[in-house]
Amino acid sequence: MTSKPVHLTTKFPTHNTQNHKGFTLIELLIVLAIIGMLAALVGPRLMNALSKSQSKTTRSQVELLSTALDNFRLDNGRYPTKDEGLAALIHKPEGLINWSGPYLRKKKIPKDAWGFDFHYDIPAKKGGIAYDLYSLGADNAPGGEGENADIGNWQ
């Protein structure tokens, strides 16, 4: 019996072709540059929209509290005193027999959009009809412009 020689051949690639998966550094830098440009264009507009929405929310809260104060006056013949403050919309002050509150649905005094308390002055000093109800804005300081401007019932 004659045996045939067995030739074991291994196939090696004749050229260097490997499957590279992933991104090159240049591709990653280009994507990061595009994201950076988009953020630079969109970021300021988003911040401006956020500022406007906080002012609108605070204006709505001033209107809500003004309505509650008007309902208090209709029932009791007067607005809450400075000492009673906005708490009179939730807790019955002594001596009021016609009080039919609480005058706010959630039974708590809301804060402005920046998390600060509203200010209530009676008699009015800033231009409200009988009282001033206002927020001092984002900086919680009198005056200011933009998001730092006071927002009140006189506007």
- Sketch the topology as an H/E string, one letter per element: HEEE
Find the CATH topology of the domain at 56-152: Glycoprotein, Type 4 Pilin
Distance between the termini: 113 Å
Rg measurement, Å: 34 Å
Task: Describe the SSE topology.
Blueprint: H1 25-76, E1 119-121, E2 132-135, E3 151-152
Antiparallel strand pairs: 1-2, 2-3
Explain what the structure shows:
- By secondary structure, this protein is mainly alpha-helical.
- It has a domain at 56-152: Glycoprotein, Type 4 Pilin (2-Layer Sandwich).
- It is elongated and about 125 Å long.
- It has one helix at 25-76, and strands spanning 119-121, 132-135, 151-152.
- Strands 1-2-3 form a three-stranded antiparallel sheet, with helices on one face.
- 34% of the residues lie in helices and 6% in strands.
- The protein is built from one helix and three strands; from the N terminus they run αβββ.
- The mean pLDDT is 82.
